[in-house]
Design brief:
Blueprint (H helix, E strand, L loop, with lengths): L4 E3 L8 E5 L10 E6 L1 E8 L9 E8 L5 E8 L6 E8 L5 E7 L1 E2 L3 E2 L1 E8 L5 E9 L6 E9 L5 E6 L7 E2 L3 E4 L5 E4 L2 E2 L7 E6 L5 E7 L4 E9 L5 E8 L8 E7 L5 E5 L5 E2 L4 E2 L5 E7 L4 E7 L5 E6 L8 E10 L2 E8 L1 H5 L5 E7 L4 E7 L4 E2 L5 E4 L2 E11 L4 E11 L10 E6 L3 E5 L3 E3 L2 E5 L4 E3 L5 E4 L5 E3 L4 E4 L3 E9 L2 E10 L6 E4 L3 E5 L3 E3 L2 E4 L5 E3 L5 E4 L5 E3 L4 E4 L3 E9 L2 E10 L7
Parallel strand pairs: 39-47, 49-57
Antiparallel strand pairs: 1-4, 2-3, 2-33, 4-37, 5-6, 6-7, 7-8, 9-10, 11-12, 12-13, 13-14, 15-18, 16-17, 17-19, 19-20, 21-22, 22-23, 23-24, 25-27, 26-27, 27-28, 28-29, 30-31, 31-32, 32-33, 34-36, 35-36, 36-37, 38-41, 40-45, 41-42, 43-46, 44-45, 46-47, 48-51, 50-55, 51-52, 53-56, 54-55, 56-57
Length: 597
């Protein structure tokens, strides 16, 4: 059962969509009306360690059953070190299982997951890196493990014979005979560190590993399998030890690791994933640093250029980098990071840009605040259904932690014609902060049919007294000085507010729950954890000694063990009592949004 799971808390977005009208290349595009993106579901995942709740999200993939798998790392309870974290979700966003990967050899070895694929037999293969303590001093080497579709560990292995001080498995391709080709970043202290490939069989046994010393150092940043079980790889390299600029190159490598052809005079970088076209060719997303322009390029397996399609919309002027390119029906979707100047003008950190088959932009979505981190493995797509996983750094007042964010969106957004918007409400009625502490708040739109939609990032915010507590455009509130004030949220003509009390930092000797607000959907469950910090500052879990009650059992129920179950849409509150001390937390129950045709 997921711990610290808050469903439909949309930290990532309420995507404000600026649609671009269709036009011919080089004619420009006219801004259309804003719309809201269709958010199907979202999660924020925190760790279950009583002190270190950090969870990071690095990669996701769609699975053949219509669901998704996301991976990253977290701080494990036993042993107390970072370990790889895997979570499986169904198409509705319900968590089916979670897995923490603990590797014991002579001692526990810290590890992290950077990539994930579903294999041809429906199992899950995850790649990352693991600390190798046998080297004399700790280094990191590729780490790969395989899970069944139900999350059962089939095997896990790391490859300690790799030649560098630090290497990781961040890209995996499956061959037609069930083997796997792996590559990733590498670094060698005081020595050259060329790019590498590692090939393993279905049981994880190494078949071969090779390095490609095309210059002093380099790496394969993008890779795709070819029809003959070789790979086309795009990378960058430095020629001398002190070079500050890495130069782009392309290689074709056969199934035995031998170079078939090489292009080392490239001037334009491959900035995103290489994708296969329906006609057996390959599409690259390229950038020219001199002209600061982007284009799509199709090549064949021999490396011949078949066409170039410039991305010449004004949308491209805002791009810092293109993170990932994926095909969708009748075109492509680009996931891009905005330039700082665009962010400063009030826009979000990222964009999703839809292109037609001629690479002409047709729609643009803004999403993600400054704290959201995404990589090329963070995004997966099936047609117009997109899943994103990323990491957000949260200031807790006593430090900071990472949260894994998962979000599924559908594009294009057609939006519901009914029901009507009835009221607006914060998920909690009041908030207490320490001076300097920040906390996220969440705003729900409640409709006439009792359905609930998170509109946190669509709302406008205002503090009645910013000297006591300020609020940013995403609903994050920061305590500035001692006192009490109100924060107002407005959305589509409706308003709501939350009382904010700012006090000195709480001293040890307190009772609390693992969250101030919980959210789940009808028919799902999540468990509450209760903690007590004694006068020495040591926390202990006291859930079994805590008495739970809930205000409105028609919305949700809670049993004696702290398990909450969603019954019907709405907001209610639980009360937890331990040794005469109580703690209140909100519970929001939502039902999946039904798309109206």
């Amino acid at each position: 059962m997921a711990k610290e799971l808050n469903l439909n808390k949309l930290m990532l977005v309420t995507l404000a969509i600026l649609m671009l009208s269709m036009g011919l290349p080089n004619q420009g595009y006219t801004a259309a009306l804003e719309e809201e993106a269709h958010i199907e579901w979202s999660h924020i995942l925190e760790g279950n360690h009583p002190l270190y709740k950090s969870v990071s999200g690095y990669a996701a993939t769609a699975t053949s059953d219509g669901g998704y798998v996301a991976v990253g790392d977290k701080y494990c309870e036993t042993p107390e070190e970072n370990c790889s974290y895997v979570v499986k979700l169904n198409s509705s966003g319900e968590i089916l299982w979670e897995r923490e990967m603990v590797y014991y050899d002579y001692d526990y070895e810290e590890n992290t997951a950077f990539t994930v694929i579903e294999t041809s037999d429906g199992s899950i293969l995850v790649g990352g890196e693991i600390r190798d303590g046998s080297y004399g001093r700790p280094r990191f080497v590729p780490y790969v493990f395989r899970l069944s579709a139900d999350g059962e560990l089939l095997w896990q292995k790391y490859y300690f014979r790799m030649p560098y001080y630090q290497q990781s498995a961040s890209s995996i391709q499956e061959t037609s005979d069930g083997d796997f080709v792996i590559t990733g970043g590498g670094w060698n202290e005081y020595s050259p560190s060329p790019a590498y490939l590692l090939k393993i069989d279905a049981n994880g046994d190494e078949l071969w590993s090779k390095t490609y010393p095309i210059g002093y150092s380099g790496m394969f940043s993008n890779i795709i399998l070819t029809s003959d079980d070789g790979v086309i790889v795009a990378g960058s390299r430095t020629l001398e030890e002190n070079d500050q600029v890495a130069l782009p190159y392309l290689l074709k490598i056969d199934r035995n690791g031998e170079v078939v052809w090489m292009k080392t005079s490239e001037t334009d970088y491959v900035t995103s994933t290489i994708i296969a076209s329906e006609d057996g060719n390959y599409i690259l997303t390229r950038a020219n640093p001199g002209t600061q322009s982007y284009y799509l390029q199709m090549i064949n397996e021999a490396g011949d250029i078949l066409w170039n399609k410039p991305l010449d919309s004004p949308s491209m002027d805002e791009i810092e980098r293109i993170i990932r390119t994926q095909p969708v029906d009748d075109g492509y979707v680009l996931f891009v990071q905005n330039k700082p100047s665009s962010i400063e003008n009030g826009k979000s950190r990222y964009q999703i840009i839809l292109l037609d088959e001629n690479a002409v932009p047709t729609k643009k979505y803004q999403f993600g605040d400054l704290d959201l981190g995404l990589s090329k493995n963070s995004i997966t797509a099936i047609n117009q259904e997109l899943l994103l996983t990323g990491t957000v750094r949260i200031n807790t007042g006593q430090g900071s932690r990472n949260e894994m964010h998962l979000l599924k969106i559908s594009i294009p957004n057609e939006g519901p014609s009914d029901p009507e918007l009835a009221r607006l409400e914060f998920q909690q009625s009041e908030l207490e902060l320490s001076v300097g502490q920040s906390a996220a708040t969440f705003v729900n739109a409640v409709y006439s049919d009792a359905s609930v939609t998170d509109v946190t990032y669509s709302s406008m915010y205002e503090s009645y007294d910013p000297s006591i507590a300020s609020v940013d455009s995403y609903g994050n509130i920061t305590g500035n000085s001692l006192g009490t004030t109100w924060i107002k949220a407005a959305y589509k003509g409706l308003e709501t507010r939350i009382a904010v009390k700012v006090s000195n930092a709480k001293e040890p000797g307190r009772f609390y729950l693992d969250s101030e607000e919980y959210s789940l959907s009808i028919g799902t469950e999540l468990d509450v954890a209760a903690y007590y910090v004694n006068e020495s500052g040591l926390p202990s879990r006291v859930t079994q000694d805590t008495v739970f009650s809930i205000d409105d059992p028609s919305i949700a129920t809670i049993d004696e063990y702290g398990n909450i179950r969603g019954i019907s849409p709405g907001i209610t509150y639980i009360t937890a009592t331990y040794n005469g001390t109580t703690y209140r937390a909100s519970v929001g129950v939502v039902r999946p949004y039904v798309h109206h045709k």
